[in-house]
Amino acid sequence: MPDLAQQNGQPLPADESPSTDHRVYGPSAIPTHPLATAPVGSPPHSVDGFVKEFLHELNTNQGVALSRSSINDQYLALASTVKNYLMARWLETGRKTREAKAKTVGYLSAEYLLGRQLGNALMASDLAEIARRGLELCGIDIATLRAQEVEPGLGNGGLGRLAACFIDSLATMDVPCIGYGIRYEYGIFRQTFIDGRQVEQPDTWLALGSPWEFPHPEASVEVNFGGHTERYTDADGVEKTRWVPGWNVLGVPYNYMVPGYLNGRVNTLRLWSATATKAFDLQIFNSGDYAQAVRAQTFAENISKVLYPEDSTPQGKELRLQQQYFFVACSLRDFIDNELEADFDLHQLPERIHFQLNDTHPVIAVPELMRILVDERGFDWDEAWDVTKQCFAYTCHTLLPEALEVWSTDLLGRLLPRHLEIIYRINEEFLAEVREAYPGDELRARGMSIITEYPERGVRMAFLATVAGTKVNGVAALHSQLLADKVLPDFSELWPDKFINVTNGVTPRRFVKMANPKLSELISDAIGSGWVTDLERLKELEPYAEDEDFRQQFREAKAWNKQRLTQLLVTRDGIELPDGHLLDVMVKRLHEYKRQSLKLLHIVSLYEQVLSGKIKAEELTPRTVVFGAKAAPGYKMAKDTIHLINAVAATINADPIVEGRLKVAFPANYNVTLAEKLVPAADLSEQISLAGMEASGTGNMKFALNGALTIGTDDGANVEIRQLVGDKHFFLFGMAEPEVAELNAKGYHPAAYYESNPQLKAALDLILSGHFSEGDPHLFDSVVYNLLQQDRFMALADFESYIDAQQRVEAKYADTAQWTRSAILNVARTGFFSSDRSMRDYIKRIWHTRPVL
Ligand code: NBG
Fold this sequence. Notes:
This protein is α/β, with parallel strands linked by helices. 47% of the residues lie in helices and 14% in strands.
């Protein structure tokens, strides 16, 4: 950031102004002193070395003796010890990348759902065992320290977790990447239940200190907002535009280590935190209006205050746009000023960076780069556009029309007037291209315009991203096809080569190796440990599916995982899981399209059949259903559904008639940490969205890789999971996407299904009778009548097929050997879903980067 005094043309004397030059100098700039190149932090190769270092950190960083230290002290000291070990590698990674001048991936994402850091850092540095033994010598159980960490929940769900998996894979694959995002002071809310209703608590993840971040206030970046634009003629007589902003804030970078798995590479995640600029502050403060100065500070800090707890629907308009521009402006500035050489020619920018736009949230980066090149760097428009459109690619993560962001031109013009002008010009030139390609087809041109006129004038961010990006990708095969055919058909017709699919993936390090140590051991004993970084090697497990000894060991691992989950849920939620049940799990955000209500109707139906004497309780397959789901605070139907699930759970769990046969558990606050315990314990994975609605899903991949069988629709990545594991090892049900489209076209009447299916009718009637609401028959009207009258996501239409599939589940589960065989084959055949493979796809087809070793 230029110093304020310098901006006014009066540089401060060197010894009075702190340096704002925060470039990283290469070794040539450092005087050759032996200490200058010594690695930081001596790696604790032995248990003794570890203990020494740990106690040193405890004493010097925390300022306590072991005998007086709290668990938090110990956790922080352990974190420091691991960081020290990784530090030399981090610095070395930076040096090598700069020296190689290699192309970097700039992953721009408003969300990173990281999960806890400690376990991952220990695993990546191979310190887990040394640390465990060292701490034991100090009388400390490492599990207690791991439990102390509050996970940074800087994302809502799949999109943010995907970003976290991707940066893990890139680090493990030695590919230079900087993850750019926002350091929200409050991440995704902490969910609690009061009388069965969701209540949101703030997520105070920073309260006890955050040992994994490295703030760099000296490298802060100024971000402007508001004001107006002016035309002027520069010294060479060229007409130019200048943005005269109305206000600004500072972005302070916080760096996080992203360690690769056992490869010595540590990439960087850089998250930005907003604070008031001095100018902003001081002016007001000097005028004596202290309250106003505080307000200014608060106003600025609001920008990175809280993650919008939305999943798939944009809201909180203005602040959200501020957040988006804030973080991409910081990130672009940071990359250009700090990652490139001082004399770097920005015409070559595409050789050094590819920015991946993770959904539409960072798309304002496109006009921002244009602004930098044209207004600040003197590029002419065509030159700048040529560079810009080589620097971005866009990933779309949805098919819900309401989730595609449109910013009103009113708001954009007020907040970012220069960017709006740039967008208009991009659109003008783009439409000229369209009109040339399709002469006389004005309707098509209007349909493709980045600017829409309805319901108000707005900028369609997905269109802007599509026009600017080198590639546009969906996140599973079906999704990419629907994206091209239904969401952006005119664009895919104009630029067929732009549209590609990259199926999502998950990191096997966190979600198999770390989360499922027993299964990992079993796999490694059978086929060696190479699968952790080469997941397709799980194929070698196939023959073991036929081996009863192996199957027995596989079941023992599952049983151990269930026990571990049981212990956790008892202490965490006071929930007891019965022994020997089929563990049936549905965890994901609460959304109508995901159809938690369909799962609920299945449960109510099982219960109703026992209650009405149609079947005996002993005939039920003993089953525990576990839900985990947060609802966006403003999403009433989702919250009402949570209320109903809790009410059904309370009634069923208290009714002796199904005791020991059917149980419903809904632990609050589902997050990455809970997923790591839940997924390995599951037998059955519920992936039951309406076909054509779930872009991909990534939970589905985690379950299959951990040996759960899937009951699912032909939606998102389920399609590919089923194709890979085979129909015999997957419980498919429901309409396929074309049938959904057909039913929609012909007119969907949910009540007809209620009338014609007695089992469905009985289940809904039981809810309507007040059985789950202490006799109040109207308590859950909103959910039930929404299903009966509207049912946008056709739960009733798929009910019968779902019940059939659940019966197939029960039949298979009764045959233990066959079930285990299918479970093992699920593991063996889903190596494709490693995020390493996703990253290879992005690298080969979009980024064209290479590893730096
Ligand atoms: C989500 C989709 C999921 C998908 C993840 C990651 C958004 C907007 N989209 O199906 O709903 O798995 O993105 O791609 O959160």
